[in-house]
Amino acid sequence: MNILLLRPHPGHDKFGLGPFFCVEPLGLEYIAAALLQDHHQVTIADLRFRPGLATVLRRSRPRLVGISCLHTLEFEQVLATAREVRRLAPEVFIIVGGHAAAAFSGPLENNVVDAVMVEDGESLMPLLAGCLERGEPLDQVPGLRLRRPDGWQSTPRLEERPALDLVPLPARDLVRQYRNGYHCLLFKPVWLIETARGCPHRCSFCSVWQLYDRTCRERSIAAVVEDFATSGDAVFVADDLFWYNPARSLELAAALKKRGVYKRWILVQTRTDLICRSAAIMAAWRPLAKDFDIFLGLEAASDNGLSGLDKDSGIKESIEAVRIARELKYGINGNFLVDPDWDEEGFRQLWGFVEQYGLQRAGFTILTPLPGTDYYRTVAHRTAGQPWSNFDMHHLLWEPRLGPERFFELYAETWRRSILNTAGDKGIMDWVRQVRPSQIPYIIRVLWRTQRMMKPAEYMKEYRASCPAGTGGAP
Length: 475
Ligand code: B12
Prior knowledge:
The chain has a seven-stranded mixed beta sheet, with helices on both faces. A six-stranded parallel beta sheet has the order 10-13-14-15-16-17. A hairpin with a 2-residue loop joins β7 and β8 (151-154). 35% of the residues lie in helices and 17% in strands. By secondary structure, it is an alpha/beta fold. The model has no long low-confidence stretch (mean pLDDT 94). It has two domains: 2-154, Rossmann fold (3-Layer(aba) Sandwich); 184-465, pyruvate-formate lyase- activating enzyme.
């Protein structure tokens, strides 16, 4: 069967990581690999690049179209893509899947979509394709929300989550034509690699552990080594919690070293308390790349702030993790959450912490209730009427304690204190010196776009646009 897998344009990437991160649709590549094993013809189209949807549909003539929906903020754009597929190819079966779709399928249960997958795709997409091909009923395919004449229905859940090694390697060949467009700030092209999936912790703002019931699955050492060895020299590791399993982490580092893997750059994501007990593991990993960055969930500048987020880790761990990582010559990127409920002191405390520990490479996102979390369930009523595109962690979904003008003045000031402020400590020429001459136009463009995060007026424009008429500016 001809199958087309689509990565839509997120639609809303003005703020946050959007402008300076663009990575390959790894979930679709794993699904494609599984479908290829079953001898289907598979095309992956990344609609952030050319050609557009009409051309892709004409060329691939699919019977089944899968659309990925990684982030809540993409819901409207995913539906718009489904609508366009339906208009151009009325007969195709359209399924949506991916993290945000699985965590909270409701907004996608729309007439232009035939099904939403609420589990991982590697084992289930081949089952679905097989059933469609043979004209068999789809209610035997687990893990679906299915559109029926009398409404949306669930098929049974999977009894057990499949092992990741079911599909050992992603079908990276299918995105070959887009490779040079994938980038993470200074690095271009970039490869996305997954070694494990899930997280056992319980941070209140995160939808990952709630979807996977605090489980963590690992790929085999052999598969991961092969993936690293055959990927390029700048690697973003997608794992929710890197270095989670100490014995496996050490074994993996040794196996990569033995295979001669050495990268220009690696970026991983992990927790502060894990770093505090993993110095030996980190020492084993550090020689595997020239530059090695850690995206650290710093989240708050006080113990109170951290416990309010169910972080189960304290400020002592944050400070110690930064010290250990720096001693081993890791770069620290991280993220802090800014609460709409803060008063001025909340911002000042954050600035003081950032200054004291030199954390200007961190990012700052607005605490946002993401669908699929308990936090969302408790405050959903406050977000009523907000477009999903505003769930990008840079929009206010309700009136903040300080009022929107003052809140955004302080929020923009927080970003101005980061290294992304080209009028700050790291000027545009310092960035330019770090890239190859051919990449200068790219880095200037990305930094130019990023400067809007330092301008309160840019946020206020968005805030006013999502206020219902007649509310005087309150969403
Ligand atoms: C890589 C990544 C990114 C990349 C983008 C990736 C891309 N292709 O465009 C970057 C770095 C740009 C990014 C940005 C952001 N991200 Co992000 N990101 C991730 C991350 C770490 C990994 C995703 C991944 O590739 N996993 C590996 C693959 C193999 O797994 P998978 O995608 O889940 O795919 C499987 C299934 O989902 C399913 N599936 C996937 N697609 C499809 C399609 C079909 C048709 C079917 C049937 C099944 C299916 O099958 C696949 C195989 O099993 C996830 C964490 C996570 N666990 O999902 C966060 C995550 C998705 N991001 C998140 C967030 C919050 C953001 C930001 C808002 C953060 C910020 N500070 O700005 C921004 C938004 C950017 C924007 N404006 O667009 C949240 C989303 C929460 C939510 N509910 O919205 C997550 C879950 C992280 C978290 N712990 O909270 N992100």
